[in-house]
Amino acid sequence: MDLTSITAVVTGGCSGLGYATARALREAGANVALFDLNAAAGESRTVELGADNTLYCQVDVCDEQQVAQAIEQVKSRFGHIRLCVNCAGIAPASRILNRDNQPAPLAGFQQAIDINLVGSFNVARLVAQAMAEQATTDADGERGLIVNTASVAGYDGQIGQCAYAASKGGIIAMTLPMARDLAALGIRVNTIAPGIMATPMLLAMPEHVQDALAGNVPYPKRLGLPEEFAALVLHMAGNRYLNGETIRLDGALRMPPK
Ligand SMILES: NC(=O)c1ccc[n+]([C@@H]2O[C@H](COP(=O)([O-])OP(=O)(O)OC[C@H]3O[C@@H](n4cnc5c(N)ncnc54)[C@H](O)[C@@H]3O)[C@@H](O)[C@H]2O)c1
Fold this sequence. Notes:
Blueprint: E1 7-11, H1 16-27, E2 31-36, H2 39-49, E3 54-58, H3 64-78, E4 83-86, H4 106-132, E5 144-149, H5 162-182, E6 187-194, H6 200-203, H7 207-215, H8 226-238, E7 246-249
Parallel strand pairs: 1-2, 1-4, 2-3, 4-5, 5-6, 6-7
Helix pairs in contact: 1-8, 3-4, 4-5
The structure holds nicotinamide-adenine-dinucleotide (NAD).
């Protein structure tokens, strides 16, 4: 995929892993569309990334109509969508029973599944429809690439992570069937399962907590960088034989119970 001539949709593109990916894509010459709830950040990120090649759309990834309208906006502004990177997500924590043996509110579990899993599927299905209508770009007949973001919690969820782990496990599980569904159209699907990454979410924690988290990582003994996530997205875009796969990006970390 020639990044100098493509347009990419990045959900959650106003912060953390999504923003780092949008920046790397812009540096590689791509147009980017940021689908994110945060309108204030959308405005400033658009300026930072260059308003001529950046479109911010205020979108809740769970909302069918908002996503469909935003995709139309991207198509009319840039003409096509070759890459979609799903980074929008939340990371709630709640034990199934609290200290008083009261059950976790069901709404919290449902919200994590809605935003992380249903939201990723919603954007993927509507972007795939747009990609299916586009011309192929190479001898292999490629039309596009969808990259979803899971988490190592999708494999080894910690205490309090039932909802988050289930949402991310769902993303890992749907990667292969989604790639199989879209294979005949020349649309690839891959997933990245990051470990502990230095995004605003993590950097807001006290330093001793960050140090403790980094201490569990075998090598390199530090938090992962958003730029390292972005580099893997760019590799996935360039490597056409990579399809239907989830790649852990975690410094060999296996999460302990807590
Ligand atoms: N940071 C980590 O250590 C880490 C590790 C593993 C997986 N992840 C996953 O990576 C993804 C990005 O995480 P991050 O650390 O960059 O988080 P972040 O909080 O920095 O960014 C998330 C972005 O998603 C947006 N967002 C949230 N809900 C949305 C919705 N319903 N619709 C549209 N936009 C929405 C937010 O406004 C925000 O800009 C998440 O899916 C997260 O679960 C992060």
